[in-house]
Write a structure and sequence with these properties.
alpha/beta, 7-stranded parallel β-sheet, binds nicotinamide-adenine-dinucleotide, 12 strands, single chain, 340 residues, binds 2'deoxy-thymidine-5'-diphospho-alpha-D-glucose, 3-stranded mixed β-sheet, UDP-galactose 4-epimerase, domain 1, 12 helices, Rossmann fold, 17% strand
């Protein structure tokens, strides 16, 4: 591993990973390949951009010529593929761009990686491909795929393509499926930053349905460490679940944020449920723990406090990313609540 192409490195997890990876490995060249969609922001990489080991290429993963050119220019031997449309609610408003980026774009990445004979291709996926759980049980790597939203269906499709490239062509694919991440640089459309920012602005906190849906939350730094471990030591053709063993009902997350900020629960506004809303996710991460020795280093109690503090200290960051397109999306998604 020497010349590593990271797609989606200007997004939430990608930018955290670029920082983490450069700090962990002295002898690497990192090429951040990112289209800079609404979710991509080079400000997330402030300070990293001056590192001589870091390069940025603005490009769309669906554009084969640009992808090929980046592989050749930097003699790429390793790929970490984060780039995707990532927000479930946006996929419900319109699925086309999700199929285009997540399925067609991943296919381009796999095909160019095969053509260039890379040593390793890590495909970053999600626990949402497994569908929804009842009150008990956890997702295993062997749980059948049952995606429910256009987002998760597009991610499951890309997972199947990645595994098919490994099986058919021997492309050295490894795959991760992680639970919900939180931490610095998360785009404000997602639950935790949205609730922090609305609470700071004394605006309503829109909780979908009864607020009793459950997610397993993992600090983004722990996700980055897990990806690095799988990149180094994961077995070709294998899938590794990543999770925090940290299940929370949405309403309890929102109450925790309000309490931490000293804001009243009267800010909570129960709104129309997300169509097809998955009830519960929970990850069994025994495989990566036992086989690769990874375990989360952050506690949620401290991690959520630090994350709230990060959003307080970085108001100018979120104010900038919330202008323009985001305002249109916010009003379309939240209707009357957005006007309050
Ligand atoms: P994000 O939306 O914050 O960032 C996505 C990045 O991909 C952005 O920088 C964007 O500009 C880039 N991108 C989008 N379309 C592109 C294209 N066509 N060509 C090149 N770049 C493009 O997403 P995230 O939350 O950081 O998620 C990153 C990956 O991790 C995704 O594959 C997602 O499915 C997966 N994942 C996310 C979570 C989570 O909780 N956020 C959990 C598990 C897995
Ligand atoms: O599980 C991994 C997935 O986690 C990733 O693959 C996705 O990219 C990532 O976006 C995330 O998906 P979720 O849909 O679980 O995350 P989100 O932050 O959008 O929502 C978390 C929960 O909070 C979910 O049950 C819906 C609820 N919610 C969300 C928003 C934005 C609300 O109640 N109100 C909201 O306004």
């Amino acid at each position: 591993m020497r010349n590593v192409l990271i797609t989606g490195g200007a997004g939430f997890i990608g930018s955290n990973f670029v920082r983490y990876f450069l700090a962990q490995h002295a002898d690497v060249v990192v090429v951040n390949f990112d289209a800079l969609t609404y979710a991509g922001n080079l400000e997330n990489l402030a300070g990293v951009d001056v590192d001589p080991r870091y390069h940025f290429v603005k490009g769309d993963i669906c554009d084969r010529a640009v992808v090929e050119s980046a592989f050749k220019q930097f003699n790429i031997d390793t790929v970490v593929h984060f780039a995707a449309e990532s927000h479930v609610d946006r996929s419900i408003l319109g699925s086309s761009v999700f199929v285009q980026t997540n399925v067609v774009g991943t296919n381009v990445m796999l095909d160019v990686a095969k053509q260039c004979g890379v040593e390793r291709f890590l495909h970053v996926s999600t626990d949402e491909v497994y569908g929804s759980l009842g009150a008990t049980g956890k997702f295993l790597e062997t749980t059948p795929l049952h995606p429910n939203s256009p987002y998760s269906a597009s991610k499951a499709s890309s997972d199947l393509l990645a595994l098919a490239y490994q099986h058919t062509y021997g492309l050295p694919v490894v795959m991760t499926r992680c639970s919900n991440n939180y931490g610095p640089y998360q785009f404000p459309e997602k639950l935790i930053p949205l609730m922090i920012i609305n609470a700071l602005n004394n605006k309503p906190l829109p909780v979908y349905g009864d607020g009793l849906n459950v997610r397993d939350w993992l600090h983004v730094g722990d996700h980055c460490a897990a990806i690095d471990v799988v990149l180094q030591d994961g077995k070709i053709g294998e899938v590794y679940n990543i999770g925090g063993d940290n299940e929370w009902k949405n309403i309890n997350i929102v109450q925790t944020i309000l309490k931490e900020l000293g804001k009243p629960e009267s800010l909570i506004s129960f709104v129309k449920d997300r169509p097809g809303h998955d009830r519960r996710y929970a990850i069994d991460a025994t495989k990566i723990q036992n086989e690769l020795g990874w375990s989360p280093a952050h506690t949620f109690e401290l991690g959520i406090k630090e994350t709230i503090d990060w959003y307080i200290r970085n108001e100018s960051w979120w104010k900038r990313v919330m202008t323009g397109e985001y305002q249109e999306y916010y009003f379309r998604q939240y209707g009357e609540v957005a006007k309050a």
